[in-house]
Amino acid sequence: MFLGFKNVLTLTGFKWMGNKTAELRAQGKTVILAWEESIGYMPGNSLDKDGINCTGVYAEMASWLHGQGKTVLDQLYTIYNKYGFHLIRSSYWFTPSKETTKRLFDSLRKDKKYPEKVGGVAVKSVRDLTIGYDNSQPDNKPYPEKVGGVAVKSVRDLTIGYDNSQPDNKPTLPLSTTSEMITFFLANGNVATIRASGTEPKIKYYMELKTPPGKTASDLAEVTKELDQLEKDVVDTLLRPQEFGLIPRK
């Protein structure tokens, strides 16, 4: 619950968000917006990504802000100042083989031992959707406790069905037993997810960085450096490209 609104997580893809939205509406609930990391938005009554509807919403917002003497960018920094920066970055490395990918993810689990830090930040928890592990849950299994220098608060492993942030160590998201995906929740509020692409020889990674409130536009350069460091920590601690012979993107 945030500011009176409930946030619901689904797997990536508008089939998941659309179906969940339809389910919630059937229960008499109002769904305002659904979105995914790959830059897609589902506002209003639509049950799929809807750029036309989004254009209307954006135009209405821009018009209202203009009447207040503000731009959309001004409003974005007002939000950052009130709630802190929330920045997302994603990238990938090529993997030489499926066997390499499996070895990499198996090495992260290390008999269910996951990294304890990403860079200098502790991993608060880890969620591994491939094997069903999430150490934010009571019956958590032992994954690395740090990513870099940061403690892992919890882990969600959707491959094996583990999430130690949940009371029963079971993920609330559907399992993904045919693909590798592990999420590390760090003690400082940042999040790192690594997953194997289902269509290409890639290992993808996603970073989410949060800062305390009170930030302004002048802080963006410094916050971007923090995101750069988080990315380095994720690559060095979790992907370990030299160890597994991963190939950088061009």
Automatic annotation (TrEMBL):
Q: Name one GO cellular component term.
A: nucleus
Top-level division of the source organism's lineage: Eukaryota
Query: Which GO terms label this protein's molecular function in UniProt?
Result: metal ion binding; phosphopentomutase activity
Which Gene3D superfamilies does the protein's record reference?
Answer: Alpha-D-Glucose-1,6-Bisphosphate, subunit A, domain 3, Alpha-D-phosphohexomutase, C-terminal domain
Which keywords, in A-to-Z order, does the entry hold? Isomerase, Magnesium, Metal-binding
GO process terms (BP): carbohydrate metabolic process; purine ribonucleoside salvage
Q: Report the protein name in the record.
A: Alpha-D-phosphohexomutase C-terminal domain-containing protein
Name its species. Answer: Strongylus vulgaris
